[in-house]
Design a protein that fits this description.
There is one protein chain. The longest helix has 14 residues. This protein starts with 8 loop residues before the first helix and ends with a strand. It is built from 3 helices and 6 strands; from the N terminus they run ααββαββββ. It has a 6-stranded mixed β-sheet. The chain has a single domain, classed as Nuclear Transport Factor 2, Chain: A (Roll). By secondary structure, it is of the alpha+beta class. β4 and β5 form a beta hairpin. The protein is about 25% helix and about 50% strand. About 20% of the residues are buried.
């Protein structure tokens, strides 16, 4: 029996980033738990609940935003959390979004993630 090792929190964050930049919804979703929650940190709103919802939301964005690309500016790993500072282009016309994502990882999957975004000034 050939069993894959469980991803570390840093590997979870990196794999989902690579899949995001490849706009590969299958690989992207595979890093998230079935019952994942994505939360807007500023409002506290859960804007995505469950892998099915994640596939619908991000799959549509991957199709719509052909120039989508996230550049990792800085990463802090403090298991089970990973905090990524990012610059995202391709979501908004001629604008780079400054974002911070915090991922909570357990058993090799992202269980919850919090996001806040702003514009680069």
């Amino acid at each position: 029996m050939n069993q894959q090792p469980i991803r570390t929190p840093a590997q979870c964050a990196q794999e989902q980033l690579e899949a995001y930049n490849a706009r590969d919804i299958g690989k992207f979703a595979a890093v998230y738990a079935d019952d994942v929650e994505l939360i807007d940190l500023a409002s506290g709103e859960v804007f995505c609940r469950g892998r099915h919802s994640l596939v619908e939301r991000y799959g549509a964005m991957f199709e719509r935003c052909v120039d989508l690309h996230c550049t990792l500016v800085h990463r802090i790993v403090c298991p089970p959390f990973v905090v990524d500072q990012e610059h995202v282009r391709g979501q908004r016309d001629n604008e780079i979004v400054h974002a911070v994502a915090t991922y909570e990882c357990h058993d090799g999957l992202i269980q919850r993630a919090w996001f806040f975004r702003g514009s680069l000034a």
